[in-house]
């Protein structure tokens, strides 16, 4: 069974037998996922770009700049309204203003 030692910086070198079996090349990203009971497994994240075909829906029509501006302003107004405090009454010389 291949073994790796972790450095003080938390890095390990994946043994060559494992790299070859997984087809790992320099720069390949690796996903780690929990399999239970404190154990993790990993797999290379090395799919082809063509594997992503169809994952983003096509847009039937594009918004105009004016529509985008209006959406941004509406959202900003919503955030502003959500974060405003209720008005407070202020007493001046013991009398409410």
Helix/strand layout:
Layout: H1 16-22, E1 30-36, E2 39-44, H2 65-83, E3 91-92, E4 95-96
Antiparallel strand pairs: 1-2, 3-4
Give structural notes:
The protein has 97 residues and is α+β, with helices and mostly antiparallel strands. Helix content is 27%, strand content 18%. It contains two helices and four strands; from the N terminus they run H-E-E-H-E-E. The chain has helices at 16-22, 65-83, and strands spanning 30-36, 39-44, 91-92, 95-96. A hairpin with a 2-residue loop joins strand 3 and strand 4 (95-96). The longest helix is centred in the C-terminal third of the chain and has 19 residues, at 65-83. The termini are far apart. The mean pLDDT is 85.
Concise account of the structure shown:
The chain has helices spanning 16-22, 65-83, and strands spanning 30-36, 39-44, 91-92, 95-96. With 97 residues, it is of the alpha+beta class.
| Number of distinct beta strands | 4
| Unreliable parts | none
Shape: elongated
| SS-derived structural category | alpha+beta
Strand order of the largest sheet: 1-2
| Mean pLDDT reading | 85
In DSSP terms (H or I, runs of 4 or more residues), the helix count works out at 2
- Approximate helicity band: 25-40%
Q: What proportion strand?
A: 15-25%
| Straight-line N-to-C gap | 81 Å
State the order of secondary-structure elements, H for helix, E for strand.
HEEHEE
Radius of gyration: 28 Å
The largest sheet is: 2 strands, antiparallel
Keywords:
97 residues; alpha+beta; two-stranded antiparallel ribbon
